[in-house]
Amino acid sequence: MIAGIIAGDFLFFHCQKLEWWLLMPLYACSVLFLSASYYFKRYARRWLFGISASLCFFVLGIHTVSGRLQQTSYAFSETKSVYRAIIMEKPKAKEQYLLCRAYLLENRDSLSVVYPRKHILLYIQKDSISGCLRRGDEVLFSTRLSPPRNNGNPGEFDYARYLTHKAVSGIGFVISGNWKITATNIHYSLMHTALECRDNIVLLYDKLGFQGDELAVLSALTIGYQEELSEEIRESYSVSGASHVLSLSGLHFAL
Question: Where are the transmembrane segments (predicted)?
Answer without folding.
Answer: 20-40, 47-65
